[in-house]
Amino acid sequence: MEYRLGIDIGGTFTDLVFLAPDGQVLTTKVLSTPDDYSRGIAEGLASVFAAGRAAAAGVDQVVHGTTVATNAILEGKGARVGLLTTEGFRDVLEIRRLRMPVLYDINWQKPAPLVDRARRQEVPERIDAEGRLERPLDEAAARAAIDALVAQGVDAIAICLLNAYASGVHEERLAALVAERAPGLPVCLSSALLPEIKEYERTSTTVVNAYVMPVVSRYLRLLTAGLGGLGIAAPLRVMQSSGGAMGVEAASTRPIHLIESGPAAGVVGAAELSRRLGGRPLIAFDMGGTTAKAALVAQGRFDRVGSLEVGGGINVAGRLLNGGGYHVRAPAIDIAEVGAGGGSLVRIDAGGGLRVGPESAGAVPGPACYGLGGTLATVTDANVVLGFVNPAYLAGGSIPIDAERSRRAMAEHVAGPLGLDLEAAAWGVHRVANAAMARALRAVSTERGRDPRDFSVLAFGGNGPIHAAALAASLDVGRILIPPVPGLFSALGMLFPDTEHHYVRTWKHRLDGIDPALLEAAYAALEAEGRAALAEDGYAPDAMRFERLADLRYLGENSELTLSLRDDGPAEEVLRADFDRAHEATYGYHSADEVAEIVNLRLVARGLSSGPRVPDSLAVQPALGARAPEGRRMVHFGPEHGTLEAQVVGRRAIGPNWEEGPLLVEEYDSTTVVPPGARVRRILWDVLEIELRAAGGAR
């Protein structure tokens, strides 16, 4: 049987999902191997193949989500980058923007530039904003600048010249000079990567791309070779932050598109589930071992943003809290993130308050209950004490759990210092973790003017279904959905999207009186790039689709709104009508008297599969060696309900009729908590639906 394979690497676990055309699903979950993430992938695949559950020759596509680019920045382990820029613009990276994530902390320091000043070289030249030559490139000075960078042992060179978005001729000549003087040295051109106005954003994006390019390229090369060594000859696709997939060659040269690839896959899966449930509005809530993420999905669609920051910590409140990391101008699904996961460390701060995260025990040593050397208490240890997590094993028995170690860690580091009994301390950890994660859900709902009570919470990730009920109740949300294979749902979601390539080009024109012929020519040029990339990916012309978008603003504004260009009327009229509506929805007003202008044109080029990528139904096969759920367990549900006996069942034991809690639905990859006063049933696509009748619920 043929399968498509999804691989998701998290901070704690590496998830593998095999999906057959008829909906059969095979899963396996192994601890991540941070020293070499590809090793964990190989170990998981080898166990599946050795058991005869799937064959390497039967894998016809591999889609992978990776944190390699993000980790390289967070850990400061990217390439040694040199920057070539226009004379006078050497310090753009340090000047940055006047934004900071903490308004009242006078001790806050901007992150150090990824390129030291000594490795930033100026070159005499000048192109004006219309792309006209003002000053020829001084090639003698350029050669000297290149030689200076090569002498410093740079691993890659970023080239970002003033106004290169309008004309890249000087950047292209510099690249040719680099090839002459240092053959094989990776080069990243801003005019090819991001031909878009705004100097700092373009420079930062180009530098970040150059910083992670050798790391990502090497990783993908080794992964491809490793898969081939296991007998997998299928093409490798990589998940993008925007929700599409791309080939290895494109991912290796444009790794900025991979920064949020893992979290994006779960939201893509949530959008597909929303479509299958009639467009039901969802808050996708993904809680893994290290972080928790949230995103809005409505009518089967998710929101995208045009940029993100990386390396500045956790993205708590979306677009407003920025300035703390490195700016990357690349499309990404709008996701809010907090540092609270199953592996998040629990501590008592100097004021005697209970804190959860953002530090994590990760996969090594992991929570205390893993028995791998961890002695500090984590959220998972608290959930073991409460009875939410199986006290004997995880992942169907493949990961043993030592509940006594959890109790010791909780007693020593939480209950004892706070003077609480063990269950009360564990419940406090559970509540504090929920409070931290609620910030992510509010960031994508109430802080965007959306009422969370109008949504259902779709909870996934290894820990999402454990915390979903208490978290939803805190937001007065009355309905929760738990998808199939919840702990591996992001890996499953990677198998749903089409291949995508995103293109942008600055095209500043007032909206009133634009020339349709010029607009069509500009989009045609972008489509030509998209056709070439999709053809390289192996797509025939009739399998290519193109979506046209534009960034618009009122004349004099500094920020733009991105809109899809409808084809049901003149561009000037439909864009103006859609822009006014979008401006009203985003900022609370619009003005028919103000002039609007197009700033950038965007294009999404999609390669469509020959067959359906999402089956009509799923049939999840029991994981290799997984144990069946066991009868009953004592579970502590907090001071309101105390400790109760809860039945422990598998998903298939839940039918279409409502069943009352307390219940624990225990699966290979996660446990769903149905608290007292709630009820659960199984609906379309094997989804569990939980109703919290004490909450306000969807209106």
Sheet of most strands: 9 strands, mixed
Mean pLDDT: 89
From the alpha carbons, calculate the radius of gyration and give it in angstroms: 26 Å
- The number of distinct β-strands equals 38
What structural category arises from helix and sheet content?
A: alpha+beta
Helix content: 25-40%
Shape: globular
Write the layout of secondary structure elements.
Blueprint: E1 3-9, E2 13-19, E3 24-31, H1 37-50, E4 59-65, H2 68-74, E5 81-86, H3 92-95, E6 120-123, E7 126-127, E8 133-135, H4 139-151, E9 156-160, H5 169-181, E10 187-189, H6 190-193, H7 199-229, E11 236-239, E12 245-247, H8 248-253, H9 261-276, E13 282-287, E14 292-298, E15 301-302, E16 304-305, E17 308-310, E18 326-328, E19 332-333, E20 336-338, E21 344-348, E22 354-360, H10 379-386, E23 393-394, E24 399-400, H11 403-418, H12 422-444, E25 456-460, H13 464-474, E26 479-482, H14 489-493, E27 499-510, H15 516-536, E28 544-554, E29 561-564, H16 571-587, E30 596-607, E31 619-620, E32 632-636, E33 643-649, E34 659-660, E35 663-666, E36 671-674, E37 678-683, E38 687-692
Parallel strand pairs: 1-4, 3-31, 4-11, 5-6, 5-9, 9-10, 13-25, 25-26, 33-35
Antiparallel strand pairs: 1-2, 2-3, 7-8, 11-12, 13-14, 14-15, 14-20, 16-19, 17-18, 21-22, 23-24, 26-38, 27-30, 28-29, 28-30, 32-33, 34-37, 35-36, 37-38
Helix pairs in contact: 2-7, 4-5, 10-11, 10-12, 11-12, 12-13
